[in-house]
């Protein structure tokens, strides 16, 4: 690495145009992002620097860039595809995409990459946007076929598409995420279309009791019951009931996907919903064809520690535009309430999840009726 550094070539006009078009939609970083070819990167790097390597970087360079909190993107060519390894403080992603040309980091690619990062997209999502960008257009990318496929951490082989999970209707409606079976027992008689038991406990017996109690409440009712996290307990209970348990599906977060037996869940006949927080996660999950995707967190929320900042309506709209043709059942999540739900539904999703809008309501039946009525507007 040189002391002063020589910046990567960037299409300045394209960068300026993107920031002008989308700055208000996604928000702008006050700091300037910079990109450097690995051979010309300065000695002093910071968290707003992106180092671009043509091929695999040496171990000492990887360590030095990581220690500075900077981003490293290593790009290799395999046949007609780019293989990009993105190393950032948020982890390592490996993605592959059809190559538009023979230049791994063209001036246009660098412009879109830096613009996306300046618009508060994390490095792995910015890479997805830059690779999916359609040359010669000013439209935000929404053609799923142009986006990369995830190699690491992949949930399915890119060359062997996974069998889809049992489908959900595109309009799951009001989706109540509740902390206990007692809440499920309260909401099922109110005909809440979709409910989720999100019971957090390491006590296996307590989990079994809560799952059985919630399933009993939902059995024969119109509410669709999803069990959060406890997939093994859910499929075991479902099997013990001969497949007629009252459980409709399982919901998993990103952190649970690597440990869950997806084949066992698929074989059980239960649906699978998955939370996602950006482009790379959506692309990763799309490979297993889940029953629905939850997109968020749209707004600030206190019910869960989120891995990313609130996405905002601009990102949410972009995610829906990309994913709805691929996975029609989409759920808006994170900080949704009676005030902002109409804005969420107007984007085109058939469901929105709520927590505090119900658990903190003084009159639960009235709150449920009011929320449910928003879906009929």
Please describe what this structure looks like:
- The strands form 2 sheets. Strands 7-8-9-10-11-12-13-14 form an 8-stranded parallel barrel, surrounded by 4 helices.
- The mean pLDDT is 96.
- It is built from 14 helices and 14 strands.
- It has 2 domains: 12-152, no CATH class; 173-376, TIM Barrel (Alpha-Beta Barrel).
- The protein has 377 residues and is an alpha/beta fold.
- Helix 6 links the parallel strand 8 (194-197) and strand 9.
- The longest helix is centred in the N-terminal third of the chain and has 15 residues, at 12-26.
- It has helices at residues 12-26, 59-67, 107-118, 123-132, 181-187, 204-218, 231-240, 254-257, 262-268, 279-286, 312-323, 341-346, 356-359, 364-373; strands at 34-37, 49-54, 71-78, 81-88, 91-98, 149-152, 173-178, 194-197, 224-228, 249-252, 271-276, 292-295, 330-332, 351-354.
- The chain is 34% helix and 20% strand.
- Helix 1 runs parallel beside helix 3 (107-118) and helix 3 (107-118) packs across helix 4.
- The protein starts with 11 loop residues before the first helix and ends with a helix.
- It is elongated.
Keywords summarizing the entry:
2 domains, 20% strand
Encode the helix/strand succession as letters. Answer: HEEHEEEHHEEHEHEHEHHEHEHEHEHH
> What's the CATH H-level homologous superfamily of the largest domain?
Aldolase class I
Indicate the CATH topology of the largest domain: TIM Barrel
What portion of residues belong to β-strands? 15-25%
Q: Please give the share of residues in helix.
A: 25-40%
The description of the largest β-sheet is: 8 strands, parallel, barrel
**Runs with pLDDT <50, length 5+?**
none
CATH architecture of the largest domain: Alpha-Beta Barrel
- For the largest beta sheet, what order do the strands appear in spatially? 7-8-9-10-11-12-13-14
Structural class: alpha/beta
> Quick check: average pLDDT?
96
